[in-house]
């Protein structure tokens, strides 16, 4: 029978093993000084809401980096336009699926199809979202409909996608889930209850999945919170209002181009971003750190 002191010594040795970096036994590839890859070539991704704005730019940045991209959106015309735009530069890189993210059985079917057609999956970008307003006062009785629709698209859909993709993602050596929330998680305005609530909830579900999946080592889950971005979602705000808002609220004094968010999303997807997990990252020109 081993002495108690032997047992503690063995436990301590086991702990030292855990404390060694998971890169300890990995060698830098020939011709390079460092071990982790900054290449996404050959990886496979799903981007939701990829027909416009940040989703479209994310699909394009991924394709530029050699990723096979599944372009998912509600609108068939938009899906085709983005697929054609990508494939004109990177032939056969993009494939399109018409998919309403609020339709749970369609989401499961599309995830299955993408994984079959691509032969696996490494990256899921949960980007589709809507902002339809609604607060304490309801003049046309539509608040509850708008609330339900926002929860379905901005929140529930993300969980359905993650659950449908996790079995395939666990087979990747560097799987990445990026959820797009909003600076509405940190700061908010009047009449935007469902949007603000769902975007805050996205950071919560991200953290829960990050903790649950962390033990598999190969998969990370993170949230990006874009600030004021020039897309269809903000098209109804006049240029004058955009300018005065940016001057008042954003230290960089401007709205962002959607590619500026897409580039950050893709940075998180690099195999080299291997220890970033469960975070909430604002991409907002400094908006949320400004005191007044
Ligand atoms: N634009 C901003 O200032 C801003 C700021 C913070 C966060 N966001 C978030 O960024 C994400 C992308 O927004 P964007 O600004 O690029 O908007 P966008 O309107 O340009 O693009 C959103 C895309 O999502 C698609 N979509 C909407 N409902 C869908 C559904 N049910 N199923 C499938 N696709 C659907 C639309 O067809 C559209 O192509 C959203 O989650 C949004 O909430 C935007």
Automatic annotation (TrEMBL):
The keyword NADP applies. The keyword NADP applies. InterPro entries: NAD(P)-bd_dom_sf, Sc_DH/Rdtase_CS, SDR_fam. CDD domains: SDR_c. It comes from the Eukaryota. Keywords: NADP, Oxidoreductase. One of its GO terms (molecular function) is oxidoreductase activity. Coiled coil: none annotated. Belongs to the short-chain dehydrogenases/reductases (SDR) family. This is Short-chain dehydrogenase/reductase SDR. It comes from Eremomyces bilateralis CBS 781.70.
């Amino acid at each position: 029978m081993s002495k108690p002191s032997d047992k503690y010594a063995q436990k301590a040795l086991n702990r030292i093993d855990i404390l060694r970096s998971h890169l300890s036994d990995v060698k830098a590839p020939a011709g390079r000084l460092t071990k982790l890859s900054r290449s996404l070539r050959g990886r496979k991704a799903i981007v939701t809401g990829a027909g416009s704005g940040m989703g479209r730019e994310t699909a394009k940045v991924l394709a530029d980096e050699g990723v096979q991209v599944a372009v998912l959106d509600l609108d068939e015309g938009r899906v085709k336009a983005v697929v054609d735009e990508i494939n004109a530069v990177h032939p056969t890189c993009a494939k399109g699926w018409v998919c309403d993210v609020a339709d749970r059985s369609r989401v499961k079917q599309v995830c299955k199809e993408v994984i079959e057609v691509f032969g696996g999956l490494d990256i899921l970008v949960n980007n589709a979202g809507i902002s339809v307003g609604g607060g304490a006062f309801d003049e046309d009785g539509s608040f509850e409909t708008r609330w339900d629709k926002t929860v379905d698209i901005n929140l529930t859909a993300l969980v359905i996608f993650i659950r449908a993709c996790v079995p395939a993602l666990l087979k990747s050596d560097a799987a990445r889930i990026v959820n797009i929330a909003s600076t509405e998680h940190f700061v908010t305005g009047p009449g935007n209850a469902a949007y603000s609530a769902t975007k805050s909830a996205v950071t919560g579900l991200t953290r829960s999945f990050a903790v649950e999946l962390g033990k598999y080592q190969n998969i990370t889950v993170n949230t990006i919170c874009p600030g004021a971005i020039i897309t269809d979602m903000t098209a109804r705000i006049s240029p004058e209002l955009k300018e005065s808002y940016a001057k008042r609220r954003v230290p960089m004094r401007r709205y962002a181009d959607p590619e500026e968010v897409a580039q950050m999303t893709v940075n998180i997807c690099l195999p080299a971003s291997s220890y970033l997990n469960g975070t909430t990252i604002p991409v907002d020109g400094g908006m949320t750190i400004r005191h007044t």
